[in-house]
Design brief:
By secondary structure, this protein is an alpha/beta fold. 2-phosphoglycolic acid binds next to β8.
Length: 249
């Protein structure tokens, strides 16, 4: 049985004042029947982890450097994320791939480092609108999966998030059939590469304009084990609505 996961990606949003949202989330969803994860900017990781205390909400980073330490100004290693209280890290988000040129090879190296540091990885894949229009979606996903995911002996430490680039922050989402097609495809690819046992234990999240009003429909799609939520994770009321929908799925 895969444990469902509601993951919030705060991106470059939030100062200490935003931790008030976390207090609300802890009060209302601190003992949810699904796993809840918040990935704030690195500056807030330690404070957020402290604020969450013993509640059942995990915190994670939004990227990491492949090396443990060294002369890499501005970068943060997986060990540092873990030291600050993180148990997860998002890797290969399309904004990192686009803004920082992070290639599949880079994401794979980051994932190896993260796993070695004991973090679980949320590896993001997804096509651009031009790639979907050209009917290349599954080829793009296949290449990103093969290139970005390191060899694994267990699936529990890996989460794959399908995030169509054109659906991120736009209010547009694929049809439920389109989401199902990609999620079934990702599951088949993982089973082919890692074997059925490992392939079936990897959780698959949908991401891109998820909100309380569309979450229940998306969670009913086959092979959707939860969501990676951007904008709607910033407010406890919205993210809470998504957590509720996942608990009821
Ligand atoms: P969004 O972002 O929910 O704001 O569309 C999702 C993401 O980028 O993870």
């Amino acid at each position: 049985m895969r444990v469902k996961l509601a993951a919030g990606n705060w991106k470059m949003n939030g100062t200490r004042a935003a931790l008030a949202e976390v207090d609300t989330l802890v009060a209302e969803h601190g003992a949810a029947s699904v796993e809840v994860l918040l990935c704030p900017p690195a500056t807030l990781l330690g404070a957020m982890a402290e604020r969450i205390g013993d509640a059942q909400i995990a915190v994670g980073g939004q990227t990491c450097h492949p090396e443990a330490s060294g002369a890499h100004t501005g970068d943060i290693s997986a060990e540092m994320l873990a030291d600050a209280g993180a148990t997860y890290v998002i890797l290969g988000h399309s904004e990192r791939r686009a803004d920082h040129g992070e290639s599949n090879d880079m994401v794979r190296a980051q994932a190896r480092a993260a796993l070695a540091a004991g973090l679980k990885c949320v590896i993001c894949v997804g096509e651009t609108e031009a790639e979907r229009d050209a009917a290349n979606t599954l080829d793009i996903i296949s290449g990103q999966l093969a290139g970005s995911i390191p060899d694994l002996s267990t699936g529990e430490s890996l989460v794959v998030a399908y995030e169509p680039v054109w659906a991120i922050g736009t209010g547009r989402t694929p049809t439920l059939d389109q989401i199902g097609e990609v999620h079934d495809y990702i599951r088949a690819e993982l089973e082919r590469r890692f074997g059925t046992g490992v392939g079936r234990s990897v959780r698959l999240l949908y991401g891109g304009s998820v909100k309380p009003s569309n979450a229940a429909d998306i969670f009913a799609v086959s092979n959707v084990d939860g969501a990676l939520v951007g904008g709607a994770s910033l407010k406890a009321a919205d993210f809470g609505g998504i957590i509720d929908a996942l608990e009821q799925a």
